[in-house]
């Protein structure tokens, strides 16, 4: 199920009540765990995160992460342990044993077939259809896969050990395992396997013959296991790399992986990237007329724009940790710039040494791109975010039903404003209500009187202007809206669409944080928006659940970032200004001294 990349929807710290519920659910699902073992897995005082992800076929999965390792994943309201937990408690689940070459097929997304199961002298574990199962390799009790039993133990024997044995959900070396620290399984000798060693040669000789039969069988039956998602590559496991080759390849590609995962980027690499972008910005972006230049503006408008494609500047992952310390080093050690505090607490670059040998000898890279554009879909084949189309609609109310009775528009029918005007115009023309003396007016007949006038107006108003007629009609209908996400069917809802709300809140004595909510309404992933905003302003961000909302989270970022948040939503994500609340609260720019 995790054979292909996963997409993170949200990452939040678990609440106290949810922590207690998780511990109770684990105690019910895995009664063999003692109270001390449960406390180790779900500690009371250590930070435990709830990460909501989507698998490659769209399955919604919840992860429970401790010390950056996923311990359990929840699928369709059922908890499963990961290999990280099973390496600590290998006897937690009933275990089926197989040969090392079979692991390659399971990593690729295939299930464990019964011909590949090694039956120990003690016999197969007693399981029923759908029971939790783990899979181990010969000579090592450390589980390498987690899943559910495809059939009961009795049926396995009655089928002659042919067919599907375990529906595999998660394996060692899949993308769920890679979400953690990527550690390998421990070596846990299996006494049961001493007698199996003499058969290894015979297995290897007959391996290809058996594999061909199993692969054909898997290709035919792969989709038949309920509740399991298997990628298309499951049938191509014959030519899969060996474990040793994958480990070697993983080591060779470690530098490449570091570029994709900023958290693994060493400080030296980030320091070098900062220096490169700094020199590039000074040589090709900054002009003498711009000085003095705020350091924050220099970082945001110039250094970010010089960042090479595929990389991101994150000062917190460098040895400097802060922009001010980096610029001080550029001033003292390299004599490239001179800093000055023109306003209390706000530093600016007041001078650049354009004749500096290091700056003059720097060669601007040929291929650079502008500021790294935030990408909404971080899965395979990154695709840019497209805003939904939002249309205001109106629903026929019971009071206006007589007006639309002739055209069969009953109560609850949703119409566009243009349709409403057209139907009202047709009603007026059909009943010859246009004032003969002044065609700008419409005579009020009994139906229009009951639908559009107040009781106090019955004797006073005999005619209405066309504009007044239309505005009164729309005003007495229930407002609705239609939202169309790219590639999806239109969704119609009653009421007003919730705008994206940006607000500033105080924390402590003199600290402010910016809060952003309702991003999900517009198809935006809060985690992606938080990351994009974090890189723009170089401030920490966190996602928090909104009380009373199941599927909504709040983006919180340090400082008053309304201006930057507004620019991100308006310019990059193309959200219309009328759907964003709070932009007027942005701090006013002070005058330069």
From TrEMBL:
<protein>
    <recommendedName>
        <fullName>Eukaryotic translation initiation factor 2D</fullName>
    </recommendedName>
</protein>
<comment type="similarity">
    <text>Belongs to the eIF2D family.</text>
</comment>
<keyword id="KW-0007">Acetylation</keyword>
<dbReference type="InterPro" id="IPR004521">
    <property type="entry name" value="Uncharacterised_CHP00451"/>
</dbReference>
<dbReference type="InterPro" id="IPR058886">
    <property type="entry name" value="SWIB_eIF2D"/>
</dbReference>
<dbReference type="Pfam" id="PF01253">
    <property type="entry name" value="SUI1"/>
</dbReference>
<dbReference type="InterPro" id="IPR041366">
    <property type="entry name" value="Pre-PUA"/>
</dbReference>
<dbReference type="Pfam" id="PF26292">
    <property type="entry name" value="PUA_elF2D"/>
</dbReference>
<keyword id="KW-0648">Protein biosynthesis</keyword>
<dbReference type="Pfam" id="PF17832">
    <property type="entry name" value="Pre-PUA"/>
</dbReference>
<feature type="domain" description="SUI1">
    <location>
        <begin position="500"/>
        <end position="573"/>
    </location>
</feature>
<dbReference type="InterPro" id="IPR057429">
    <property type="entry name" value="WH_eIF2D"/>
</dbReference>
<feature type="domain" description="DM2">
    <location>
        <begin position="389"/>
        <end position="476"/>
    </location>
</feature>
<comment type="function">
    <text>Translation initiation factor that is able to deliver tRNA to the P-site of the eukaryotic ribosome in a GTP-independent manner. The binding of Met-tRNA(I) occurs after the AUG codon finds its position in the P-site of 40S ribosomes, the situation that takes place during initiation complex formation on some specific RNAs. Its activity in tRNA binding with 40S subunits does not require the presence of the aminoacyl moiety. Possesses the unique ability to deliver non-Met (elongator) tRNAs into the P-site of the 40S subunit.</text>
</comment>
<keyword id="KW-0597">Phosphoprotein</keyword>
<dbReference type="GO" id="GO:0005737">
    <property type="term" value="C:cytoplasm"/>
</dbReference>
<dbReference type="InterPro" id="IPR036885">
    <property type="entry name" value="SWIB_MDM2_dom_sf"/>
</dbReference>
<feature type="compositionally biased region" description="Acidic residues">
    <location>
        <begin position="245"/>
        <end position="260"/>
    </location>
</feature>
<dbReference type="InterPro" id="IPR048248">
    <property type="entry name" value="PUA_eIF2d-like"/>
</dbReference>
<keyword id="KW-0396">Initiation factor</keyword>
<dbReference type="InterPro" id="IPR036877">
    <property type="entry name" value="SUI1_dom_sf"/>
</dbReference>
<dbReference type="InterPro" id="IPR048247">
    <property type="entry name" value="eIF2D_N"/>
</dbReference>
<dbReference type="InterPro" id="IPR003121">
    <property type="entry name" value="SWIB_MDM2_domain"/>
</dbReference>
<dbReference type="InterPro" id="IPR039757">
    <property type="entry name" value="EIF2D"/>
</dbReference>
<dbReference type="GO" id="GO:0003723">
    <property type="term" value="F:RNA binding"/>
</dbReference>
<dbReference type="InterPro" id="IPR039759">
    <property type="entry name" value="eIF2D_SUI1"/>
</dbReference>
<keyword id="KW-0963">Cytoplasm</keyword>
<dbReference type="GO" id="GO:0003743">
    <property type="term" value="F:translation initiation factor activity"/>
</dbReference>
<dbReference type="Pfam" id="PF26291">
    <property type="entry name" value="SWIB_eIF2D"/>
</dbReference>
<dbReference type="InterPro" id="IPR015947">
    <property type="entry name" value="PUA-like_sf"/>
</dbReference>
<dbReference type="Pfam" id="PF25304">
    <property type="entry name" value="WHD_eIF2D"/>
</dbReference>
<dbReference type="InterPro" id="IPR001950">
    <property type="entry name" value="SUI1"/>
</dbReference>
<feature type="region of interest" description="Disordered">
    <location>
        <begin position="245"/>
        <end position="264"/>
    </location>
</feature>
<dbReference type="GO" id="GO:0001731">
    <property type="term" value="P:formation of translation preinitiation complex"/>
</dbReference>
């Amino acid at each position: 199920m995790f054979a292909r990349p996963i997409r993170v929807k949200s990452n939040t710290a678990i609440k106290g009540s949810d922590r207690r519920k998780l511990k109770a659910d684990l105690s019910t699902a895995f009664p063999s765990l003692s109270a001390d073992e449960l406390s180790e897995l779900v500690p009371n005082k250590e930070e435990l995160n709830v990460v909501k992800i989507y698998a490659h076929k769209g399955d919604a999965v919840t992860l429970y992460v401790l010390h950056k390792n996923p311990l359990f994943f929840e699928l369709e309201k059922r908890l499963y342990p990961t290999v990280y937990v099973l390496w600590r408690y290998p006897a937690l689940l009933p275990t089926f044993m197989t040969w090392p070459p079979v692991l390659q097929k399971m990593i690729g997304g295939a299930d464990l077939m019964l011909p590949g199961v090694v039956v120990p002298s003690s016999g197969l574990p007693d399981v029923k259809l759908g029971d939790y199962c783990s899979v181990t390799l010969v000579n090592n009790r450390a589980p390498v896969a987690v899943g559910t039993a495809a059939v009961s133990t009795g049926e396995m024997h009655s089928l002659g050990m042919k067919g599907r044995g375990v529906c595999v959900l998660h394996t060692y070396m899949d993308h769920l395992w890679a979400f953690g620290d990527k550690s390998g399984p421990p070596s846990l000798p299996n006494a049961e396997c001493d007698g199996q060693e003499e058969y290894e040669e015979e297995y290897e000789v007959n391996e290809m013959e058996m594999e061909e039969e199993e692969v054909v069988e898997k290709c035919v039956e792969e989709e038949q296991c309920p509740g399991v998602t298997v990628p298309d590559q499951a049938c191509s496991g014959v030519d899969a790399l060996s474990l040793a080759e994958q480990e070697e390849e993983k080591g060779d590609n470690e530098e490449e992986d570091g570029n994709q995962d900023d958290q693994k980027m060493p400080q030296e690499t980030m320091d070098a990237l900062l220096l490169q972008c700094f020199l590039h910005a000074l040589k090709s972006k900054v002009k003498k007329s711009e000085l003095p230049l705020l350091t924050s503006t220099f970082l945001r408008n110039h250094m970010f724009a010089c960042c090479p494609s595929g990389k991101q500047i994150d000062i917190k992952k460098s040895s400097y940790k802060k922009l001010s310390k980096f610029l001080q080093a550029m001033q003292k050690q390299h004599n490239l710039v001179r800093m000055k505090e023109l306003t209390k607490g706000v530093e600016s670059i007041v001078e650049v040494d354009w004749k500096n040998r290091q700056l003059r000898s720097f060669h601007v890279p040929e291929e650079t791109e502008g500021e790294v554009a935030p990408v909404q879909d971080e899965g395979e084949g990154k695709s840019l975010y497209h805003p939904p189309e939002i249309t205001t609609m109106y629903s026929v109310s019971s009071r206006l039903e007589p007006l639309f009775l002739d055209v069969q528009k009953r109560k609850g029918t949703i119409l566009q404003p243009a349709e409403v005007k057209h139907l009202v115009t047709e009603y007026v023309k059909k009943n010859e209500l246009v004032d003969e003396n002044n065609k700008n007016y419409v005579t009020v007949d009994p139906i229009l009187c009951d639908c559009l006038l107040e009781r106090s107006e019955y004797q006073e108003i005999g005619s209405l202007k066309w504009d007044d007629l239309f505005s009164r009609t729309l005003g007495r209908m229930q407002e609705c809206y239609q939202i169309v996400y790219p590639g999806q069917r239109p969704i119609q809802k009653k009421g007003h669409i919730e705008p994206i709300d940006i607000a500033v809140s105080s924390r402590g004595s003199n600290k402010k944080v910016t809060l952003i909510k309702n991003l999900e309404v517009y198809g935006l992933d809060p985690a992606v928006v938080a990351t994009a905003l974090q890189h723009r302003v170089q401030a920490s961000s966190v996602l928090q659940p909104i009380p009373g909302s199941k599927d909504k989270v709040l983006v919180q970022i340090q400082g008053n970032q309304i201006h930057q948040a507004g620019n991100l939503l308006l310019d990059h994500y193309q959200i219309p200004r009328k759907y964003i609340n709070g932009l007027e609260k942005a701090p006013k720019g002070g005058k330069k001294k």
